[in-house]
Automatic annotation (TrEMBL):
It is found in: Cytoplasm. Residues 2-217 form the Glutamine amidotransferase type-2 domain. The keyword Membrane does not apply. This is Glutamine--fructose-6-phosphate aminotransferase [isomerizing]. Keywords: Aminotransferase, Cytoplasm, Glutamine amidotransferase, Repeat, Transferase. It catalyses: D-fructose 6-phosphate + L-glutamine = D-glucosamine 6-phosphate + L-glutamate. The gene is glmS. The lineage of its organism: Bacteria, Bacillati, Bacillota, Bacilli, Bacillales. Residues 283-422, 452-590 form the SIS domain.
Length: 600
């Protein structure tokens, strides 16, 4: 979603800001802008569309050592040049970029800003107008900034320039991520360390409701009352090669291929000296103490949660409910006496999940976040964290995070079973090792996946994924993958449920991709395939060695029956990738989507 960068130093800021914004492109956006300040004033450049268009519009003759930049994903007002950030106050003295949503922006307009002419339809513009109003009334800029922030309800990460003092970037944060990066003779601001990792790996984390006064030489953090807060920087463990595509045409393909390595990294990160896969003692204790687990997640992470429920219930015998985070807040089920909330989130920044975390913390319940991003909001705010060790996931379509989430959930379940004295008759470490090898074989079979995509999905309008039990959840993930990047209408269904309505949609040639990796439901799913074939469907069965039949389109090598989602998802990811490619879709940055959904 929206991204923020800022630079204050001695070099011209334009290129640093534009490069930073390019690093944030993966998050999804529809317009972008920068504002740079020099002795001649503040110069604003913004454009609807890609950063490449913004680049073209930037005046190369303007040289300025201070600036802020923004990628916008529209929430209030259509994607347009006028609605894109930075926004300026009426006198153009103040220039501001903002991530998040100001929930009470219309009340602020009504109560404080009557008579002000607004240029944009955004919620953001009230903030910059409010600061100007307070300054005009006689307040100092910092005081006006803090005063304005105190009135805001909602989420914000803000960068502010004052034309009359271009030696400062004012920064603030509440619920939306924002970091300050430290350099020699310069400092930077970024909503994600990835944006500025090329200039520094030293970052200071900001806590909600803090402001920061950033100059070339100093970074001063204060709370909203003006009291200075001391905080040591940390080193961002990001490797440039992790965030570059290398020789791959798309991040998605690179990330699919990284999955065997990720599984091996997870094994080595969670293995103890006895070779057992374990989690921290306090997480284990929380698992032992709880009487019911509530998994909260969105999108792909929700699908991983559905698989995780099977693991925790089957291995550790703890009841689990899996909930979509955006539904949970206002539709909370009756909770058990000792609930444990498990948040699954690649980014650790998903606002819908965070809203639930805030709620359950207020209720006094324990929480665990399973995330790929150390130090992310959900990680910081939960009681415990388990990391995915998947490396940065940049493509909007989540792939390696999904398999990492499932692996970590398996480890969590296995560890809880051990702690509760429940016998588990397989060696998870060994079985995950087999999974990694099978994943490699599957990733090497790209030509076949491309052929399947061409055969079934080149021209189709819609597609169904069916499965039973754990295969159904992989089907849901397959449908999400396909629709988000290829725009083919795709749905994942429980095989047995089709005949209760959805089978009416099957026409001559409708592709039905069926996942068949579970012995217990093998006959059932094959019966469901016959039902759709009888109505004209074009069946594509992805089965597992040992359960295969003559007409199966693709057979994946056998792995432990609980771990099949880790391998059956790979053909599905690759088929979706090639379908999107054939349709000339923007694979890594699908329309309307953002990588990290930081607004509710
Ligand atoms: O960062 P999170 O895991 O919390 O994100 C949740 C969803 O937004 C995400 O999984 C989304 O569904 C992906 N684009 C799917 O590929």
């Amino acid at each position: 979603m929206c991204g923020i960068v800022g630079y204050i130093g001695k070099e011209d800021s334009k290129e640093i800001l534009l490069r930073g914004l390019e690093k944030l492109e993966y998050r999804g956006y529809d317009s972008a802008g920068i504002a740079v300040a020099n002795e001649n004033g503040v110069h604003v450049f913004k454009e609807k569309g890609r950063i490449a268009s913004l680049r073209e519009s930037v005046d190369a003759n303007v040289v300025a050592p201070v600036g802020i930049g923004h990628t916008r994903w529209a929430t209030h007002g259509v994607p347009s040049k006028v609605n894109s950030h930075p926004h300026q106050s009426s006198s153009q003295r103040f220039t501001l970029v903002h991530n998040g949503v100001i929930e009470n922006y219309d009340h602020i307009k009504r109560d404080y800003l009557q008579g002000v002419t607004f240029q944009s339809e955004t919620d953001t513009e009230v903030v910059v107008q409010l600061i100007e109003k307070f300054v005009k009334e006689g307040q100092g800029v910092e005081e006006a900034f803090r005063g304005a922030l105190k009135l805001l309800k909602g989420s914000y990460a803000i960068g502010l320039l004052d034309e009359q003092n271009p030696d400062i970037i004012f920064v603030a944060k509440n619920k939306s991520p924002l970091l300050v990066g430290l350099g020699e003779g310069f400092n930077v601001v970024a909503s994600d360390a990835m944006a500025m990792i090329q200039v520094t790996n030293q970052y200071v984390e900001l806590i909600d409701k803090e402001i920061v006064i950033v100059t070339r030489e100093s970074v001063t953090i204060k709370n909203l009352e003006g009291t200075v807060v001391e905080r040591a920087p940390y080193t961002a463990e990001l490797d440039m090669s992790d965030i570059e595509k290398g020789t791959y045409p798309h991040y998605m393909l690179k990330e699919i291929d990284e999955q065997p390595l990720v599984i091996r990294k997870i094994i080595s990160n969670y293995q103890n000296e006895n070779g057992e896969l374990t989690v921290d003692g306090d997480v284990r204790q929380a698992m032992v103490d709880t009487d019911r687990i509530y998994i909260i997640a969105a999108g792909t992470s929700y699908h991983a949660g559905l698989v995780g429920k099977q693991y925790i219930e089957k291995l550790a015998k703890i009841p689990v409910e899996v909930h979509i985070s955006s539904e949970f807040s206002y539709n909370m089920p009756l909770l058990s006496e000792k609930p444990l909330f498990v948040f699954i989130s690649q980014s650790g920044e998903t606002a819908d999940s965070r809203a639930v975390l805030v709620q359950v913390k207020e209720m006094g319940f324990k929480s665990l976040t399973i995330t790929n991003v150390k130090g992310s909001t959900l990680s910081r705010e939960a009681d415990y964290t388990l990391l995915l060790h998947a490396g940065p996931e940049i493509a909007v379509a989540s792939t390696k995070a999904y398999t990492a989430q499932i692996s970590v959930l398996a480890i969590l379940a296995r560890d809880a079973a051990r702690a509760k004295g429940i016998e588990v008759d397989f060696d998870l470490s060994k079985e995950l090792g087999i999974v990694a090898s099978v994943m490699e074989t599957l990733c090497d079979d790209k030509e076949e996946m491309e052929q399947i995509a061409r055969e079934y999905l080149a021209t189709t309008r819609n597609c169904f994924f069916i499965g039973r039990g754990i295969d159904y959840y992989v089907g849901m993930e397959g449908a999400l993958k396909l629709k988000e990047i290829s725009y083919i209408q795709a749905e994942g269904f429980a095989g047995g449920e089709l005949k209760h309505g959805t089978i009416a949609l099957i026409e001559d040639g409708t592709p039905v991709i069926s996942i068949a990796t579970q012995e217990i439901v093998n006959l059932g799913i094959r019966g469901n395939v016959k039902e759709v074939v009888a109505r004209g469907a074009n069946p594509c069965i992805i089965s597992m060695k040992g359960l295969e039949e003559a007409d199966d389109r693709y057979v994946v090598p056998a792995v432990h029956e609980l771990l099949t989602p880790l391998v059956s998802v790979i053909p599905v990811q690759l088929i979706s990738y090639y379908a999107a490619l054939h349709r000339e879709c923007d694979v890594d940055k699908p329309r309307n989507l953002a990588k990290s959904v930081t607004v509710e």
